[in-house]
Amino acid sequence: MPQTPDRLTFKLIERLVIAQSELMHLSYRATSAWGNLAGGVLAATLPEDELTALTLRLYARHHSTQTVGSGLREWESEWYDRDLPPAPSRVLVCAAGGGREVRRLLQRGYVVDAFEPSDVAFRELRQLSGEDCRVSDRSYREWVAAVEAGDSPRYDAVIFGWGSLSHVMTAASRAALWRAADSVCDGPILASFYLHEPHRVGRAQRLGQRIGGLLARARGRPARDHHVNFVYAVGFSEPLTVEEVESCARSIDRRASWYLRRTWPHVTLVRRSAQ
Ligand SMILES: C[S@@+](CC[C@H](N)C(=O)[O-])C[C@H]1O[C@@H](n2cnc3c(N)ncnc32)[C@H](O)[C@@H]1O
User: Fold this and answer.
1) Are 256 and 269 in contact (CB under 8 A)?
2) Ligand 1, atom 8: nearest CA belongs to which residue?
3) Which residues line ligand 1 (CB under 6 A)?
């Protein structure tokens, strides 16, 4: 069959589109391998406070209400409906970002306290402060210190906001968070986080961890041997395991209700004595 100009033009476009898609695929793989390698090195080399500081800087750099959105996700809405005590109870929202969850809870009639340490997001959150809403720029670590010093009101529920528990980089610090929440709240503790998926640790990350291990020893620090995620816009996170959360729940005498079928894993811990 003779090649018409129309057919030839299409062939040319087809080649260009395929070449471009290959190029995009390669650049995506290179960016992702670089992120995994750098993340592996940094996560193994840096101590918890430095990883947190970098994470908060990256959140500040990339925070945007447009990407986070302004409403509750469907899974959050259902979760809150099911597990929060009715309004107007007093709820603490930890790692509240620009106030996405806080805004909706206020609209539902709750009294809300919230904290968020990343400065750009905190400026947005501060705009919600008022009679029914008190905000602070504390980090998780500073909040635990305040609770342990007896400097906290009591709450009817505590929420560890969307994905945030995973940014707390050691199991010991996360255990301290559950204890702090339990000590200021007889009601439910709701927590959202990333869950550990072993198959996701790739070659680049393993290499990064090995290099990081050497650097950590050179700095005279123990190397972290856990799985760590690094994403350019949201920094470092350590995915949790079901076993870790169950063990923390038992240590504060609470029962865990799991929600694992939806996109974002989350859990509610309820006092055994409340059942
Ligand atoms: C995925 S964002 C969610 C923000 C908000 N809860 C929302 O859903 O819109 C996670 C938040 O955790 C905060 N964060 C990260 N590390 C933290 C830490 N160590 N203490 C308190 N907040 C932290 C970040 O600044 C960020 O705002």
Assistant:
1) yes
2) 162
3) 52, 55-56, 59, 68, 95-97, 100-101, 116-118, 121, 139-140, 161-164, 167-168
Length of the chain (residues): 275
Percent of all residues in the chain with a pLDDT value above 90, rounded to a whole number: 69
Q: Considering only CA atoms, which residue is closest to atom 3 of ligand 1?
A: 162
CB count within 10 Å of CB 126 equals: 16
Average the pLDDT over 38-55 and give the result.
90
Would you give the DSSP letter of residue 130?
B
State the average pLDDT over residues 8-24: 96
User: What is the 84 CA–ligand 1 centroid distance (Å)?
Assistant: 20
Are 98 and 137 a contacting pair, CB within 8 Å?
no
The model's pLDDT over 105-136, given as tens digits with 9 standing for 90+, comes to 999 999 999 999 999 999 999 999 999 999 99
Contact 235, 168 (CB under 8 A): no
Provide the 3-class DSSP secondary structure of residue 92: strand
